[in-house]
Amino acid sequence: MKSSDVRVPKIEMDDIETVNDNSFTEENCAIVTGAASGIGRATAIALAANGLTVVGTDVDTNGLREMKQKATELDLDGSVETVQADLTVDDELREIVKTANSSGQIKYLANIAGLQHIDPIDEFPPEKFDLMYQVMVRAPFYLSQLVIPHIAESDTGKGCIGNMSSVHGHYVTSDKVGYNTSKFAIRGLTQSIAAEGNGDIRSFSISTGYVSTPLVVDQIPDTAKSRDITEQEVVEDVMLGQSRNTDMMDPIDVGNLFVIGFSDLASHLNGGDLLFDGGMTSTYQL
């Protein structure tokens, strides 16, 4: 795959998996962070396609507007609302949950928002590390803390929290200390929620290799510069070099995993991690 071939694909109805689940109704609400683009956008649309009321949130107002327009074009069974919010501000996190609670019974939370920065540890800006921790660890923790009582007070007292991890929550690559650390931490949060959920409030994480999202596409030039290699070498050697698959996942592929993880099909998925990495972490080149 050439670097020029890496594009963020469009979402079509045929790409979305639907599940027959009695809890997937407009009376029930799912919160999705990072909903303006990439995996967050795909997950918000996939959940709404499965009949849920979705409250998508992001700091990117234009991206949220585009996501809602796409949902309208697809004529989904569920509905989509948006809340512009900064995940580093507690008052805005509380506003997200308040909006969701007024939209339906909060049953699901998908913590997906993320960001990347590439630098070796001795040059990594501490303020950038702090920001990444705030968005990818503390915000998921606080949102989980806020929604758990709402799930417990819902009609069945059951629900689920899904967290976006990564292959970098299993093993690390250089120059990504903020991302690596955050993705290991989110798996710890996932297991902590499961430990305290008594089987009624489940939690799971999803770990993928490289997905065709703006986050991935935008980091190709920086990775090439930091490693003094070409952008093509970044795609072929760094991103896909250890994978047995020779293409990246699409964002909707990951959105579909959140649909399955939230559904009754995954009733025994609790504290576990869905590792969809093309063999990246468990195989090696002979």
Description:
- With 286 residues, the protein is α/β, with parallel strands linked by helices.
- The protein has a single domain (24-211, 250-276), classed as NAD(P)-binding Rossmann-like Domain (Rossmann fold, 3-Layer(aba) Sandwich).
- Helices cover 43% and strands 15% of the residues.
- The chain has 8 helices and 7 strands; from the N terminus they run βαβαβαβαβαβαααβ.
- It has a 7-stranded parallel sheet, sandwiched between helices.
- Strand 2 (53-58), helix 2 (61-74) and strand 3 (79-84) form a beta-alpha-beta unit.
- Helix 1 packs across helix 8 (251-262), helix 3 (90-103) runs parallel beside helix 4 and helix 6 (214-227) crosses helix 7.
- The longest helix has 27 residues, at 126-152.
- The radius of gyration is 18 Å and the shape is globular.
CATH superfamily: NAD(P)-binding Rossmann-like Domain
CATH topology-level name: Rossmann fold
Beta percentage is 15-25%
Distance between the termini: 21 Å
Biggest sheet: strand arrangement: 3-2-1-4-5-6-7
Number of helices: 8
Protein structure class: alpha/beta
Q: Report the uncertain regions.
A: 1-6
Domain count: the total is 1
CATH architecture identity: 3-Layer(aba) Sandwich
Q: Sketch the topology as an H/E string, one letter per element.
A: EHEHEHEHEHEHHHE
DSSP, total strands: 7
Quickly name the level 1 CATH class. Answer: Alpha Beta
What gyration radius follows from the Cα positions, in whole Å? Answer: 18 Å
Q: What is the general shape? A: globular
Largest pleated sheet: 7 strands, parallel
Please bin the fraction of helical residues.
Answer: 40-55%
